[in-house]
Amino acid sequence: MHRLFQSRKLGWGLVLSLCLSILCLSLFITSPIKAQKTLKFATEPTFPPFEFQGKNGELVGFDIDLIQAIGKAADFQVQFQNMQFDGLIPALQAKTVDAAVSAMTITPERQKAVDFSRPYFKAGLAIAVKANNQDITSLKSLQNKRIAVQIGTTGALEAKKITGAKIRTFDNAPLSLQELLNGNVDAVINDAPATLYAIKQNNLKLLKITSQLLTEEYYGIPTPKGSPNLEDINKGLTTILNNGTYEQIYRKWFNAQPPQLPETTTIDNATSSINTITIISNALPNLLKGVVVTLYLTILCGFLGMIGGSLIGIARLSSITPLRWATTAYIDFFRGTPLLVQILMIYFGIPALVQGFGIKFSLNPFTATVLALSLNSAAYIAEIVRAGIQSIEKGQTEAAQSLGLGAVETMRYVIFPQALRRMLPPLANEFITLLKDTSLASVIGYQELLQEGRLIIANNYRSFEIFATVAIIYLVLTLLSSRAFAFLESWMNPVNKSLKGG
Ligand code: ARG
Fold first, then answer.
1. 3 in any annotated domain
2. Measured CA distances, 137 to 165, 166, 185, 213, 448 (Å)
3. Ligand 1 centre distance from Cα of residue 227 (Å)
4. How far apart are the first and last CA of the chain?
5. Cβ(190) to ligand 1 under 6 A?
6. What CATH number has the domain bearing residue 169?
7. Are residues 338 and 235 in the same domain?
8. Is 104 exposed, middle or buried (0-12, 13-18, 19+ CB in 10 A)?
9. Could you give the angle at which helices 463-492 and 449-460 cross, rounded to 10 degrees?
């Protein structure tokens, strides 16, 4: 009994000292560093002077300096993450980032989806036109004109209100200005400070902005709804507004005295309560429009690719050496470079190049997309055709020739029909790839299915429902196509035919 008591006492002592040492150890480990929290800020880095890549690829800009200063003032570390502009609010809703900084205007619609900091910058929209343009001076004069905008921006919303305007939507503001330079649109609606900076920095003497601002807007730092970090961000922002740091940063980028900022903008507290079914059914008409465009593109480019690919595939088997080389080079190029790059090159690069020689030339998004997709798929189809033809035994050619058929007739009546049947499965693959690849046309603002979806999200911020619907639609389309090809394959199978026939 006594012994037991003693050992129990010993046991307690051991536990106590163990606890103490753990406590000391943890104090020792944590105290010198005093964990500073790190906040992840999403940004769309093609918006000078607010956020863009510096000479060495680092992020620079007014917003970047501002966030660093706020972090210092409110004692948190900052990490940036690049993103598309229309992905910022969805990312905040999904809480994959802690905040965003992207010259984002505080609007009532956005306030339904995210919480904004106090305003940190005063801006407004302006119309950019070619320097020699005299007739576009106001919103009114933009009626029935072609306008380029950046997806998901206040500029895009403003453009939508103009009657008869043909709007082209791009992933970033520089692309929309390029579009204006190339003469594909009559105007760009964008934030005035950003457009002015682009004109000045890049010496775009060909462009100017109209004198009157269309709107008065305030930028804010959006955070997820109910974010615990908003208070720190606001505290830091207030500190640097009061201690002169803000003014310093403002002077650095704008070379001017900063304007007075309000402490708040009107807060719209209504949260959106529209349910999933309504969201999807509201989106369906526009998505279906996108489906029609996507199918049309796929069939047209598949058809053109098939013609081009067959010719190239046959030419590759030719005995004329230069022809073989040329077709090999063609295939290597179009298979070896990303389709996205090809689309951008055809749409933006080639017109810019041609215009460099003083020739007026432009491509619309449709033509550019059809060109890129057809040229690209022709390269793949050429290989399918070549392999298909080569897979037919030599004996077939010999037999055809011994029957007196010429080279072209042999190809047309003997080799090609047999080869086609073998080519069907890889052609089906190519068709399905093509169908999905049409979504890349969204980068040049072509309104196919994906772009329709992104435009809807840019207005309602319901990324999950819309992207899921878009994905399901693509899936249905590809499943239907693969069924159709399977049917075609069995229909073309002579064994099946003779079974049914006999
Ligand atoms: N202020 C405008 C808006 O909130 C445009 C911002 C664009 N920002 C950017 N980083 N691309 O819609």
1. no
2. 15, 17, 15, 10, 32
3. 22
4. 101
5. no
6. 3.40.190.10
7. no
8. buried
9. 170
| Residue to probe by mutation, ligand 1, list 41, 64, 114, 153, most atoms within 8 Å of CB | 153
Residues 294, 208 share a domain: no
393 and 320 in a single domain? The answer is yes
Nearest to 47 by CA among 123, 111, 99: 123
Residues 98 and 134 in one domain: no
pLDDT at 5: 46
Query: 208 and 223 share a domain?
Result: no
- Residue 290 resides in a domain: yes
- Dihedral angle sign, alpha carbons of residues 116, 120, 122, 126: negative
Q: Are 189 and 305 part of one and the same domain?
A: no
Number of structural domains in the chain: 3
The pLDDT, as a whole number, for residue 29 is 55
Please choose, from the candidates 186, 120, 182, 112, the residue with its C-alpha nearest in 3D space to the C-alpha of residue 148: 186
Confirm whether 29 is domain-assigned.
no
Contact 385, 420 (CB under 8 A): no
Residue 208 · residue 131 · CB < 8 Å: yes
Give the pLDDT of residue 34. Answer: 58
Below-50 pLDDT ranges, the chain = 1, 4-5, 501-502
Report d(CA 155, CA 126) in Å as an integer: 8
Q: Which domain holds residue 45?
A: 38-121+219-254
What is the CB neighbour count within 10 angstroms for residue 279? 18
> How many CB atoms sit inside 10 A of residue 8's CB?
10
Q: How far apart are alpha carbons 102 and 376 in whole angstroms? A: 35
3-state secondary structure of 166: strand
Residue 444 domain flag: yes
The helix-helix angle for 245-254 and 62-74 (nearest 10°) equals 170
Which pLDDT does position 267 carry in this prediction? Answer: 59
Query: Residue 24: what pLDDT?
Result: 52
Shortest-distance atom of ligand 1 to CA 173: 11
Residues 207 and 164 both lie in one domain:
yes
Q: Residue 12: its pLDDT value, please?
A: 66
Check the CA dihedral 376-380-382-385 and report its sign. Answer: negative
Cβ of 173 below 6 Å from ligand 1 = yes
Helix H or strand E encompassing 370: helix 365-390
364: DSSP letter: -
Tokens for 41? 């800020």
Residue 445 sits in a domain whose CATH number is: 1.10.3720.10
The best mutation among 85, 88, 106 to test binding of ligand 1, ranked by most ligand atoms within 8 Å of the C-beta, falls on 85
Per the document, the length of the chain is: 502
8-state DSSP, 187: E
Q: Which amino acid is at 385?
A: V
How many angstroms is it from 215 CA to the middle of ligand 1? 14
Question: Are residue 203 and residue 144 in the same domain, yes or no?
Answer: yes
Positive or negative: CA dihedral 23, 29, 31, 36: negative
CA gap 233, 14 in Å, rounded? 47
